[in-house]
Amino acid sequence: MKQILSVQNPLIKQCKKLKAKKYREEQGQFLIDGQHLLQEAISAQLSLEYIFYDPNRCDPPQNTDAECIECSEEIIRALSDTPSPQGIIAVAEMPNEPDSDLSAGRYVLLDDVQDPGNVGTIIRTAEVLGMTGVVLGEHCADVYSSKTIRSTQGALFHIPILRRNLQAFTEELHQHHIPLLATAMNGESLEEAEVPLNFAILFGNEGKGVSPALLDKAAQLLTIPMAGKTESLNVTVAAGIVLYRLHSKR
Hints:
Layout: E1 2-4, H1 10-16, H2 21-27, E2 29-33, H3 35-43, E3 48-53, E4 67-71, H4 73-79, E5 88-93, E6 106-110, H5 116-128, E7 133-136, H6 146-152, E8 161-163, H7 166-175, E9 180-189, E10 199-203, H8 212-215, E11 220-223, H9 235-248
Parallel strand pairs: 1-4, 3-4, 6-7, 6-10, 7-8, 9-10, 9-11
Antiparallel strand pairs: 2-5, 3-5
Helix pairs in contact: 5-6, 5-9
Keywords: Methyltransferase, Transferase
Pfam families: MRM3-like_sub_bind (PF22435), SpoU_methylase (PF00588)
Domain RNA 2-O ribose methyltransferase substrate binding: 31-98
């Protein structure tokens, strides 16, 4: 079993750079931090290159072809973005973006959702409720940032994720006769609305909502009925309510 004890090791320095988005995109790799996320990645048959582990904290997984490297707690802390790392971190290959077969399906579209925690939580909700895929607009948070990955709790590895120009993607949807739904303050009540079998549902920026240009493309606007005086909901809460209600209408 290979062992590395110094944070000055060239491989550790190289892997540490993956904490930056620019280097992740250049290398086509990202970091997976923690036992649960690592097991989810392995179960999804994600390609892993290295697994660094602290033998005082945990054992390396047996069900992987990745090179397992014993290392110090100092190295784990250098590679992790969390204040209390679990003692194991992997270097994974970014999966190839899947082909988008738009002949059928139910898609979640995110327009300029910038908080990594929000993006990750919506991906997790979409996967749990059986959505076909999640499409991220160009200005959304990076799906491979550590906070986004943690927020997905591994759902990221089990649902197709696409990054697209949403203006162009909505045109593709139209060509394949998949209607675009969007959330808006002046829409039809979510409780009463009839929705088609196949659709794409659009959620917008935390502060500004869905951009007017995309809202104009929506075939149907939906509103969450609210009994209180609060005028709006956090985008992750709104997405959870809407996706669950649409799921129950199947």
